[in-house]
């Protein structure tokens, strides 16, 4: 994953590396708490034995 850099073109050397990490929700948007995308996605996409 990448964040587009100053040249506004994806896939070039100035792009910012983006990782899934725990983040704080913005209360100005009507939400509060934490969003843990990495673990939420892992749980949602996991398959059980069966």
Report the sheet with the most strands, covering strand number, pairing sense and barrel closure: 2 strands, antiparallel
Percent of residues in helices: 10-25%
Distance between the termini: 33 Å
How much of the sequence lies in strands comes to 15-25%
Specify the number of helices.
1
Structural class by helix and strand composition? alpha+beta
Radius of gyration: 16 Å
Overview of this structure, please?
The structure is a single chain. The chain is α+β, with helices and mostly antiparallel strands. It has one helix at residues 37-45, and strands at 2-3, 16-17, 22-24, 34-36. The strands form 2 sheets. A two-stranded antiparallel ribbon has the order 1-2. It has a two-stranded antiparallel sheet with strand order 3-4.
State the gist of this model.
The chain has 50 residues and is an alpha+beta fold. 18% of the residues lie in helices and 20% in strands.
């Amino acid at each position: 994953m990448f964040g587009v850099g100053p040249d506004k073109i994806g896939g070039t050397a100035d792009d910012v590396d983006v990782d899934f990490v725990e983040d704080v929700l913005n209360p100005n948007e009507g939400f509060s708490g934490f969003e843990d995308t990495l673990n939420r996605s892992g749980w949602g996409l996991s398959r059980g034995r069966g």
